[in-house]
Amino acid sequence: MATKDILYSTLEKIMEQETDGLKRKHAFLDYAEQFDGIERGSIGASVSVPVAVREHGAITFGDTGYEATNDAVSSTLENASFNWGFVSGPIAISEKEALANQGNLAILDVYEARIRNVMDLLGRKLNSQFLADTEGISASKFNSLYGETSGVTTGFLEGKAKASQVNSVGGLSKSTYNVPGWTNAWASASGAFGTNGLDAMSSIVTQITSVHMGDRPVHCIIASEAAFKLYKKTLQVNERYMAADKALDGGRLDLMFGGAPIACDLALTQAGWTNDDIFSMYFINFEGVKLHYQPGGEFVLKEMGYANQSVVRTHRIIVGGQLIAKHLGSLGVLTNGNA
């Protein structure tokens, strides 16, 4: 049987491969890595983000250039504070199983299968929480882009006009700080994507373009399966094909809108969502939202031990971090676009 050191180093290698694979499975994690949407290394009980919620000073237009100027200024910043989220998943093998699978390759095959199983479930759970608040937001859980959950008013994005947005994000209320940087873009397809979908998408991009941070308005668009199919259908007459021997292998092949890739995600297919509670597409600029990992908290495999009062060896995969908002005006949502 493999020694503990050899076993653990091999398991860490498997973890690296599975973590990379996890990002390929889920578009949000994949694009976050591509477009600098991941931050690492912060420590402390929470993460604090300075947010511009008011104008610093007045602008004076002059006719002659000798007019008196308004030099009154104020602080522009408030701090949004986010508690860290934490999630873990166990990996276990009994001594009986270990004896039945003696030999380096046999025992590693058992561990590898279980790591893949736990990582797959952990990835799906985290991704669904980020996109659909399926786990429910609390002080110890990860935040969500979805802000229409009944009874919870801390999701980042809302399916309503800017003036009507009221959620509290990082402790800063949108109703108190109803400014371009702290209210998200929104448009509804009104349950008729074929008629309203493209116009609504264009409206969202226009809203983001007028206030966004960074070098481009939208880095990516995450769509529900239904909305993705409907968008693809509208483009069908313009599709072009090439011979199979001329095709290039470029990895993920995405549709585009306004220069931003669109990928579908099953997490946006949720029972119980109705009307504008249906979030059909997220328009994401990663200058506005970040996935922040704590040191030692990015899909880490912890040391082996024994489960209480048993002969079961255990490892544990942990994730510590948080989804944090920096500039909600750089984000948008298309609602009611699944039909």
Describe this structure in words.
The protein is an alpha+beta fold and 339 residues long. The chain has a single domain (4-52, 80-239, 252-335), classed as phage-related protein like fold, CATH 3.90.1690. Helices cover 27% and strands 24% of the residues. It has 6 helices and 15 strands. It has a 6-stranded mixed sheet, sandwiched between helices. Strands 1, 4, 12, 13 and 14 form a 5-stranded mixed sheet that branches. Helix 1 packs across helix 2 (27-34). The longest helix has 29 residues, at 104-132. It is globular, with a radius of gyration of 24 Å. The N and C termini lie far apart (56 Å). The model has no long low-confidence stretch (mean pLDDT 88).
Write the SSE topology.
Blueprint: H1 4-25, H2 27-34, E1 38-40, E2 46-52, E3 77-83, E4 85-94, H3 95-100, H4 104-132, E5 168-169, E6 172-173, E7 185-188, H5 193-209, E8 220-223, H6 225-235, E9 255-257, E10 260-264, E11 279-284, E12 289-293, E13 300-306, E14 312-325, E15 332-335
Parallel strand pairs: 1-12, 7-15, 8-10
Antiparallel strand pairs: 2-3, 4-14, 5-6, 8-11, 9-10, 11-15, 12-14, 13-14
Helix pairs in contact: 1-2, 1-4, 5-6
Keywords:
27% helix; 339 residues; alpha+beta; six-stranded mixed sheet; phage-related protein like fold; 15 strands; single chain; globular
Outline of the structure:
With 339 residues, this protein is α+β, with helices and mostly antiparallel strands. The protein contains six helices and 15 strands.
